[in-house]
Amino acid sequence: MIEILLLVLVVVMIGINRKTANRLTALEKEVEAVKADLLRRPAIPLAASTEAVRAEALAETSREEPVPPVELAAREAAGEPALAKTETAEAMKDAGTGHETVAPGPVLQPAAAERPRESLESYLGARWPVWVGGVALAFGGIFLVRYSIEAGLLGPAARLTLAALFGLILLTAGELVRRRAMPQMSERFSNAMIPGALTAAGAVTLLGATYAAYAIYEFIGPTTAFLLLALVSFATIALSLLHGQALAGLGLLASLVTPALVATEEPNANALFLFLGLTWLAVNAASRFRQWTIVPTLANVGVGLWALAYIFGSDDFSAMPVTLALIVMIGGTGFFWPGARHGAERPAASGWSGLLGRPPLQITLSVSIMTLLPALAMVLRHTEGSGMALFAFGALAAVLGALGASRAYAVWPAMIAAAGAVLGITLTALSWLDYVVPSVLPEQTDGQPIQTLAFTNEIIVALLLGAVFTLLGFAFLKRFRRAEPEFSTVWAVLMPAVPVALATISFLNFGNLGRDWTHGLYGLGLGLALLAGAEWLFRRSDETAQGRIDWPANLIVAGSFAGFTLALHALSNGIVTTILVSVLGFAYVLAMRVRPWPALPWAMAAATLIVFGRIAWEPTLIGPNSLGTTPFLNALLPGYGIPTLLAIATAWILRNSPDFRIRNVMQALASLAALMTIAVLIRHAMNGGVLDSRVPTLGEQSIYTLVTVGFSGVLMTLDLRSPSPVLRFGSMIAGVIATINVLSLHLFALNPYFSGENTGPWPFFNLLLLGYLLPALAYGLVAFHARGRRPMPYVVMLALAGAVLGFLWATLSVRRFWQGENIADWKGFLQGETYTYSVVWLLIGVALLVLGSRLDARSLRLASAGLVLIAVVKVFLIDMSNLEGILRALSFIGLGAVLIGIGLFYQRILVKKNGAPATTDSEEPAS
């Protein structure tokens, strides 16, 4: 069967060769025809051709991309002549000669030109046989050895010797073919070179013979086997300089597999990672010479996987050899290959997309990921009291960050190192949950608390690692700030964010939450260093004067505020921290008089948000047990009031700021802070000095409604004086919120008729006055003030809410007059009470009619008509069936008299003498 397949394969190859020969013959005939045609053409005059040819030659030379010296050396080593240089020189020489005719010759394409797409014939005839042939040779050597074993022809030593000789013969054949092959063949079929295939087959044969001598026949020991396998692997990598990247990959694979093939009872981690480091250097040396990127990426992955296998596979791993090998990988990437090569020229793509995709992307991503994973693995595997793994993690994160700060293409190492640093310290903090310090501490001979002894390493690593990132950020900005604006922005974020995040995690998990001088002084020093850096950057910046934002400098200013905030939280607590944070933000606002940095006022916005967060975490600021019961004069007044006053002062200072964003933000935050302060003080006063989640009473909710409606009016007044979208929309939002409270709480949930709440002993100054009449008057005043200044639907909403509240006050007051302090629904209705409702509603309708005619307000007249209609319906449907005797008669008589009076009023006053209708609200100004 195998013979038949080989015969078919030979026939197919003969057919392909015959077809190729026919095509070459046809091509030769076409070339001869073109030459004959050129010879028949007249000669071109020298005067008209010399300058044109010279200009064309110069243009062709300028279009060609210069070939790097490394690539020229590689071509010469591979036996390829520098054709591009020769063709250019000959063209220039011909352009300056005195020949009358210029015969066109073959034009050499530039080195970077796109090659034509290969045909199926090229793959089947030139590539596939080479690939399969190389594999076949390797298997042939293996099968030959196997056959000799099965047949018992030779002894083990002879078999291994013949296998080694066969491998050396293949290596020699590969070199001979390479020296005698055509240069065009090696360039066109670089991925399927016959010399490379022969060399790869020979290397596999030698590796197999060496391993068999060790593992099967035990002719050599593990040390000798390791050295021989390493020698063959390194030789394969060296030969890849002549035979291509594929052979380098084979040598890399052999090197990475060698430690796994040669096993000993006492594995030496130092020797293992020393060998891996040397392998990485050898692969990257070849890659630098030939400018490969795939093999270095695989080398990074291989070293990282070996590190992970060692960390998780060893019972008691040593962090030092792993760390040193990974540092060699990171340092070699930064200074050896690719080094500074990709930072010399900017890539074609610019902006953020160009930065994130900057070459060599696969190398930077692989070295970053394969460094971070072993570093995090060491954090997970480290045990209590072993600080070496933690320090190794910090060293790897710092060195990877240094790579990101030293090379303009290393944006991913910078960001991955920062993320890994924060993640590693977080995992360290979480791992301590498995062995928390017991509540009853044992006695210490030196008197030092056990927490301090246990957490020293974690605090040192976290704080030092954060400081390293700050220094790396300054180093990057000094070198690349003007040339790399996007990358500078990244470092301006990382250099304050990483130390603040690490110090915060360290403080919350390992520090003293009462007062921690270590973390406090660290935050203070960080803030001062970043402020000094901002001063240095702004002094050297010319972008602010040109109207553009210098993002790195402004981000560093924001980072200094974060550092000082960390210091305040470490050195103080409770209400003191809340007040000092707002004072710190206001100090940044006052600093605008000294330095016009755009980021300064944003510190106050951040401070106000931090205050809001602290209030949400603990509304009492000092604890519910320490909060006094005195209304208003308690800790809530300074705790809420001072940040609110500072926010209002900041909004006033920024009222004319050219940056409308911070102006609007501070106006919104100041308004919200003021409303929240008033509400909290009211809540405390109305609940006996207790802040909890109990449902408010109608009186408390009425105060909230009055405050919200009044707040809407104040914002509207401020907007009329200094127009602002925040004040305009804020006033309407406050009005809508107050109206929702009225419709949901005043009408139903907290209504004394449904809740049964006592209204108080006084006839007029009672709960109904606070819950309905005062909010109704407030709504009426705001609606009157909003006429012509706000959209008409909003004004109508306010007017209707006020009318509903007034109607409820009158109705519930009638019920209180007849039922007493408790007006709950279970009491039913009295006949006098029912009749009084009709009288009161009609009187209110008449009053609204008179007021509407005096103010020329159609809305009031329509409200009057609606209320009279309700009274009419009530009289006919309720009074007729429920009232008896004189009350029923008086109800209908009163209704008839009022209706006739209303008709007479309209006929004699509201209708003009000429019969034209009176003026309506349509003459009022619209919003």
From TrEMBL:
Q: Could you confirm whether the keyword Cell cycle appears in this record?
A: no
Q: Does the keyword S-adenosyl-L-methionine apply?
A: no
- What is the protein name given in its UniProt record? DUF2339 domain-containing protein
Could you name the domain of life of the organism this protein comes from?
A: Bacteria
- Signal sequence interval, chain numbering: none
Q: Name one Pfam family in it.
A: DUF2339
Identify the species of origin: Rhizobium puerariae
Q: Which spans are transmembrane here?
A: 124-145, 157-177, 189-213, 219-239, 246-263, 269-287, 294-313, 319-340, 361-380, 386-403, 410-433, 453-477, 489-508, 520-538, 550-568, 574-592, 599-617, 637-654, 666-682, 702-720, 732-750, 762-782, 794-814, 834-853, 860-880, 886-906
Keywords tagged on the record: Membrane, Transmembrane, Transmembrane helix
